[in-house]
Structures are given as structure tokens and as C-alpha cells.
Write a structure and sequence with these properties.
This protein is an alpha/beta fold. Helices cover about 25% and strands about 20% of the residues. The chain has 8 helices and 12 strands. It has helices at about 35-45, 80-85, 105-115, 130-145, 160-165, 180-190, 230-235, 255-265; strands at about 5, 30-35, 50-55, 75, 95-100, 120-125, 150, 175-180, 195-200, 205, 215-220, 240. The strands form 2 sheets. Strands 8-7-6-11-9-12-10 form a 7-stranded parallel beta sheet. It has a 5-stranded mixed beta sheet with strand order 1-4-3-5-2. It is elongated.
């Protein structure tokens, strides 16, 4: 292994891990932090690149069987870990990953490079700002085989530490795109046969059980408190909702996403029934 023992937290090789409570490696930095052994292992198993791994000296022995040989391993004394990162940390391992490219989502251009099959599914998030909700949605997407995630305006960083932690590292399996022009992206999607579904409680939306799939499908979810902007709803092919009992007027966005996506993924295109 490429081991380096570091005795001073002033060492510049530790900069990505410094004061994590008050800093977040943003898109501009080109990096992100994965914390805990499970997340580091899932990062290493993914196609993403890893710049370095930080190891608490007292946990090094248990990791000799799985730490890679081609990534710098920075080993620091246990007593320095909390001082370095700015909070108590007992998970033993962190990794600094290299952020993947997040291209603009332009469905008409993408359709020339890849076919959107009838059973293709994707998710677009607009204004989802809670890291736990985003991480939970990513976990559901991975479980259902939904790989493509489009991030609209005002979303939390998909590689924020809490997002990655709540996703249980499943975010590493997904492909991310971005768009600032949601309405135009949805119009493009419609022109190439992608049906867009707005998760909303609008009077124009249909109940989930009434939905019949017609082909490749994109499902939109909005802000936890305010839902999707009206422009997004109007630009979608249709709205879809979950009927609720006992006077319940809404569900947490990540819970609603799990229910809606499970249903959409299990019905065959054009049949409106289970595959």
C-alpha cells in the first residue's frame, strides 16, 4: 500500500479533510468527501476516481485487506482526527473523491448518441434542498435501477457529505446531469417521445393507479415545502399524485418518490399493468 504517516495536521496533503463541519468541497473544487468505511469501500468499487484516503491510525490494521495499492493512504494519529476535521469522528476512514462531469441534460442531443428504450426511467429534481431527502431519493433510484438523475435549479449539492451518507454510497452508481432551463428540457424530451410526469397535488393530476405508461419516462419532484414550480408542472406531459387517507394532505418528498417510482418502474409500457 501507498502509506504515508502524517504527524501534523498542518500537512497540506490533509487540506481536503480540514474543518469539514464548516466547509464543503463544492463543485468548483472538483472534489468530494466520503466518510465511514462502507462509503469509502463503495467509492472504491465505483468507476469514480479517488485522490486519497484518510485513515485513523488505530483502524489501519483492520483495513489492510481492502485498502487499494494505487491510492495514497494518509495515516494520522487517532487524537488528531477530530482536531483536523472539526468534529468527533469515530468511523475510522474518509476518502477524497474526484467529482464526475455533470453535463447539461439536452435530451435531443443525447438521443443521437443513445436510444431511449421504452423501459428507460429517469428522475429530475427541482429545488430539493434537504440533503436527507436527496440522499433517500438516490438510494431508492439505485434500488429500482434508475441511473439517470437530472438536477434542476436550487438543489442541494448531490455530493454533499450528508447526501452521500444517507444514500449509503448509492449516489456513486448514478449518472448526474444538470439543467437551468427546465421547461425547455421538458419540451425537448417530449419531442423525442419521453413522457414527463410532475409529482404534484394539482387538480389536473391523475391518481397513481390511473396512470398508464406509454414509453420512456421522466418523473419530476420538487421542493419539500412548496413542491414543483407551476411552470414545471405545466411543461410536463401530465401530473401524477398519490391518493391519501385520514385527512393526510402530503408526504415527505423522498417517501412520495419511493412510492411513485416503484409504481412507474413496474408497469409495462402501453399496458398499464405489472411487468
Amino acid at each position: 500500500m501507498n502509506l504515508t504517516s502524517i504527524s501534523s495536521i498542518e500537512d497540506p496533503r490533509l487540506d481536503p479533510y480540514r474543518n469539514l463541519r464548516t466547509t464543503n468541497l463544492t463543485r468548483v473544487s472538483g472534489r468530494f468527501i466520503a466518510e465511514s468505511r462502507p462509503l469509502v469501500q463503495r467509492l472504491l468499487a465505483s468507476p469514480l476516481s479517488v485522490e486519497s484516503i484518510l485513515v485513523d491510525q488505530q483502524d489501519l490494521e483492520q483495513a489492510t485487506q481492502w485498502l487499494p495499492t494505487d491510492v495514497p493512504i494518509l495515516v494520522i494519529p487517532h487524537g488528531l482526527v477530530s482536531e483536523l476535521i472539526g468534529f468527533d469522528f469515530h468511523r475510522g476512514f474518509m476518502a477524497c473523491g474526484i467529482r464526475p462531469e455533470m453535463p447539461n441534460w439536452e435530451p435531443e442531443r443525447l438521443s443521437r448518441d443513445q436510444a431511449f428504450s421504452a423501459d428507460w426511467n429517469a428522475v429530475m429534481l427541482v429545488g430539493v434542498q434537504d440533503p436527507e431527502n436527496m440522499g433517500s431519493i438516490f438510494r431508492s433510484c439505485a434500488a429500482l435501477g434508475i441511473k439517470d438523475i437530472i438536477l434542476g435549479p436550487n438543489c442541494v449539492d448531490p455530493f454533499a457529505r450528508r447526501v452521500l451518507r444517507v444514500s449509503m454510497g448509492n449516489a456513486f452508481k448514478l449518472s448526474f446531469y444538470r439543467t437551468e432551463k427546465v421547461a425547455e428540457a421538458l419540451r425537448q424530451a417530449g419531442r423525442i417521445g419521453i413522457e414527463s410526469l410532475a409529482a404534484c397535488l394539482s387538480s389536473k393530476s391523475i391518481e397513481l393507479a390511473q396512470y398508464e405508461r406509454s414509453g420512456p419516462t421522466l418523473v419530476l419532484f420538487g421542493n419539500e415545502a412548496h413542491g414543483l414550480p407551476e411552470e414545471c408542472i405545466e411543461s410536463c406531459t401530465k401530473g401524477i399524485r398519490i391518493e391519501m387517507a385520514m385527512g393526510t394532505d402530503s408526504l415527505n418528498v423522498s417517501v412520495a418518490a419511493g412510492i411513485l417510482l416503484h409504481y412507474v418502474c413496474r408497469i409495462a409500457p402501453g399496458l398499464g399493468e405489472d411487468v
